[in-house]
C-alpha cells in the first residue's frame, strides 16, 4: 500500500542517522579538542539519542491520522508482540520530546557560556549529569501521559473506525493504537484526551520557546559578550552559535512544524465545523531525517571538523590498525613456521 512507503523512508533515515551520527561521535571523542567539557557530552548524548530514535522508528513504524477532532496514533507493525509494539510507539513518542528538550538544553548551556564561561566550566559532576539527563524527564512524562490518558475505548474507536478503513483498509480493532478524541458528540470535553493534548502542546512549545529565546538573546548579546574571549575563542563561539542556529532551523522544519497540525488540530472546538481528514503519519518521515541533519550541520560549520575531514587525519587510525593487524598476522605466521621446524 502507498502509506507503507514510509517504511522505506524510515529505514533510510535510520541508515543515514547511524552512519553520520556514529561518524560524528567518533570524531568528537577521538580527535576534536575545541568541543570539550559538558558541551562535548551534550552533543554526544544528542547524537546517541538520534540513533536510538531512528532505530526505534524502524521497529515501531509509527503512523498517525487526523480526523476532525481526533488523532489516531498507531503502528504499522502487526507482526511483533502486541505489548512490545505498543511500548515501542509510546517510547518513540517520548523520544520526540527528548530530542526537543535536548536542543533546548544545548541552547541554555551555550547562552550561559557566553555570559559566564568560568561558571559553566566549574560545574560539579552532579550538575553535569543533571544537564545531560534532564531531557529524559519531559520525555518520560510525555510517554506516561500517553499511556495513562489515551487508551482507546468504544467511543474513540467508533469515531475513527470508518475513516481508518477507508484510508488504509485496516480494522481499528486489530491495530496497536492510541486514540485522542478530546470532545464527545455533544461537544462536551473528554478530559483524559483533552489533558494529554494540553500536556503535549505545553511540553513542545515550552522547550521550543526556550530555543527561540536563547537564540535571540545570544544574537543580541554576541558582539558585547565576545569581547571577553580571545580572538581564537571568538571564532569558535561564533561557529557554535551558527551551529545552534542550524540546530534551531532543523527542529523548526523537521520537528516543530510537523507536530503543530498533528497535536493541535484535535483541540479545535467542534463548533467551528472544520473538517479534517489527513494522513499525518507522513510527517513522521520528516522527523526521522532530523538526527543526521543535525550532525552534518555541526560538522560543516565548526572549522575543526571541516579541517579534520578535509585532511583525512581520522583515516590514519584505520591505516595504523590495518598495519598492526597485518604485522601481528605476519609475526604469528612466522612463529608458527618456526615452531613447526623446531618440532621436526
UniProtKB/TrEMBL annotation:
Keywords: Membrane, Transmembrane, Transmembrane helix. Signal peptide: none annotated. This is Seven TM Receptor. It holds the Pfam family 7TM_GPCR_Str. It comes from the Eukaryota. InterPro entries: 7TM_GPCR_serpentine_rcpt_Str (IPR019428). The chain crosses the membrane at residues 12-32, 44-64, 84-109, 129-149, 194-220, 240-262, 282-303. The keyword Transmembrane applies. It comes from Caenorhabditis remanei. The keyword Membrane applies.
Amino acid at each position: 500500500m502507498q502509506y507503507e512507503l514510509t517504511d522505506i523512508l524510515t529505514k533510510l533515515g535510520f541508515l543515514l542517522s547511524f552512519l553520520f551520527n556514529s561518524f560524528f561521535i567518533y570524531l568528537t571523542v577521538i580527535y576534536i579538542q575545541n568541543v570539550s567539557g559538558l558541551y562535548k557530552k551534550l552533543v554526544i548524548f544528542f547524537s546517541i539519542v538520534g540513533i536510538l530514535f531512528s532505530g526505534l522508528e524502524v521497529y515501531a513504524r509509527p503512523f498517525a491520522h487526523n480526523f476532525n477532532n481526533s488523532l489516531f496514533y498507531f503502528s504499522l507493525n502487526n507482526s511483533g508482540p502486541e505489548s512490545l509494539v505498543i511500548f515501542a510507539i509510546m517510547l518513540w513518542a517520548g523520544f520526540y520530546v527528548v530530542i526537543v528538550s535536548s536542543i533546548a538544553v544545548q541552547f541554555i548551556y551555550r547562552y550561559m557560556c557566553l555570559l559566564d564561561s568560568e561558571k559553566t566550566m566549574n560545574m560539579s559532576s552532579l550538575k553535569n549529569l543533571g544537564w545531560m539527563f534532564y531531557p529524559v524527564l519531559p520525555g518520560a512524562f510525555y510517554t506516561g501521559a500517553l499511556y495513562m490518558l489515551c487508551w482507546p475505548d468504544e467511543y474513540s474507536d467508533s469515531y475513527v473506525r470508518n475513516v481508518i478503513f477507508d484510508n488504509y483498509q485496516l480494522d481499528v480493532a486489530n491495530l496497536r493504537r492510541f486514540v485522542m478524541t478530546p470532545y464527545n458528540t455533544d461537544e462536551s470535553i473528554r478530559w483524559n484526551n483533552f489533558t494529554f493534548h494540553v500536556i503535549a502542546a505545553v511540553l513542545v512549545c515550552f522547550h521550543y520557546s526556550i530555543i527561540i529565546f536563547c537564540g535571540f538573546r545570544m544574537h543580541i548579546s554576541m558582539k558585547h559578550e565576545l569581547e571577553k574571549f580571545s580572538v581564537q575563542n571568538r571564532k569558535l563561539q561564533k561557529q557554535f552559535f551558527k551551529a545552534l542556529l542550524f540546530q534551531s532551523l532543523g527542529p523548526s522544519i523537521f520537528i516543530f512544524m510537523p507536530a503543530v497540525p498533528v497535536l493541535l488540530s484535535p483541540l479545535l472546538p467542534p463548533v467551528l465545523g472544520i473538517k479534517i481528514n489527513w494522513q499525518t503519519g507522513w510527517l513522521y518521515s520528516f522527523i526521522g531525517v532530523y538526527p543526521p541533519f543535525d550532525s552534518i550541520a555541526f560538522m560543516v560549520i565548526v572549522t575543526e571538523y571541516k579541517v579534520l575531514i578535509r585532511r583525512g587525519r581520522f583515516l590514519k587510525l584505520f591505516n595504523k590498525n590495518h598495519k598492526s593487524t597485518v604485522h601481528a598476522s605476519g609475526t604469528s605466521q612466522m612463529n608458527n613456521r618456526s615452531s613447526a621446524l623446531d618440532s621436526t
